[in-house]
């Protein structure tokens, strides 16, 4: 659903996902859909999203529209009996996220928020190393994501298009801290600072306080390239997911009583692919996870659970309110 | 004044500071002072601080006592007409810091808060590179200082001794952000999160929001070794002061349109010295700065000014109040 840049990258990655079968695509007009379909060899191309969700050969829909349309498109697909994978953020606020999950439950359909980083083997290695206790009790995690976005990127700089840095890139460090440090717990307190300019949030920072003296820090920025690193510190060492954190290929594990080791997870090849974003081939891991879930008859993923997704939506609400961020549709 | 660990390190560094002359030392009892004096070859050793400040050969007093005594010792020295260099933090709260400066002004005496990092050539290089504009407009700075302190270090773990991580190590990142990013400006807003256990602050984090979309983040921790790094990001590149930030020897400058370069500033030798803390020989730069100021007849230093010192004290008050930190003497 949608034939934009991220959807194109997702489709390339789907091509190397064993067992995945791309049967249809849809854009707001038929011409765009046909162009996209031709490029990717997709049989059914539709000029409206409604047509796509009425196609009985479609089993699960990937929603790659801009943030402000995720809600509408998710409801449309669910109401037509389709399982969905929704790009992050699932909604632009907690209420939207909640309603999408509610409808999916009612319809007994699968829904997952597309936080693809969580399925990247480098991230999985970091998480399993943490869980194994190799760095002791985790007490601190800090993740940065900042990009000096050119001024012509409408999805970032246009408030009407749901622009801003928090929901586009800030959500990555937030999910990371929640999964690697928070470990299912709700933060005791969130404290955020940030800047709003021209109706969009241009830069921000937040700290998350968890039980047992755990502190998480996330930084996001649309002005400058922050070193895109995740640093997780425990009582017995540290783990660093090396840049680019959101689609990483290496992690360095440094137990204080052992040898520092860097683990490389090279991304697979995808012949002839033309990518819009960095390391997008890693979408294949997310797609495979959705496929496995569906084949197993699951209605939610075990990593990006409904609870985590809603907790992240809660925290985003809190941050938005603290930095004074509202989207035009929320005013 | 005091013959403890930090004073010992300071005295070793003074020995290689050209023109510095150590005439006297004092401890709470004569035996300790004599032992310290013998070790360091100091002619006058006193069993009380009052005797030291009455010694007419003493020109400037270094106050190396634990935080909770800085105030009392500073007033004692100033009231006896001595210039002072007070270890950081100058006081345990804003009121103490203010009163010390007030008395120094009344007595026309020199006073400086001993934030020695600011005089380290590596730090000076970072600051001058920032000021030269090599990384464009600075928008983000983040500095961490965390040490897995052994439980037998009373100065950290005893509330009665002014224990806690913020005033002991958190003040370093705070000063760094204020000097490298804040550049004399007062933060628009400070947001802090932290933990208090057994009456002391064990871990914390704070963000500082400055005009012109500048965000600073500081992290301090008494449980875990945080990578002790300063990262300063501008619109045209970044600068990293490599560990250990508080007494560094190298800085990496990475302009986005140029070549990354690491500058090394090896510390001088100090024959026969036995150090208590990492890279303490760098105290020599701070001592030299005080000496130059005094020879020039100045009453305050141009880097660690009264204004900066009071601003830092203000921010510390704000953080303390947000994380619920109070020293026994403040309750």
Automatic annotation (TrEMBL), chains A, B:
One of its GO terms (molecular function) is D-xylose 1-dehydrogenase (NADP+) activity. Keywords: Oxidoreductase. Pfam families: GFO_IDH_MocA, GFO_IDH_MocA_C3. The keyword Oxidoreductase applies. It comes from Arcella intermedia. Gene3D superfamilies: Dihydrodipicolinate Reductase, domain 2, NAD(P)-binding Rossmann-like Domain. Residues 4-114 form the Gfo/Idh/MocA-like oxidoreductase N-terminal domain. InterPro entries: Gfo/Idh/MocA-like_OxRdtase_N, Gfo/Idh/MocA_domain, GFO_IDH_MocA-like_dom, NAD(P)-bd_dom_sf. It catalyses: D-xylose + NADP(+) = D-xylono-1,5-lactone + NADPH + H(+). Belongs to the Gfo/Idh/MocA family. This is D-xylose 1-dehydrogenase (NADP(+), D-xylono-1,5-lactone-forming). Residues 123-239 form the GFO/IDH/MocA-like oxidoreductase domain. Coiled coil: none annotated. Its EC number is 1.1.1.179. Signal peptide: none annotated.
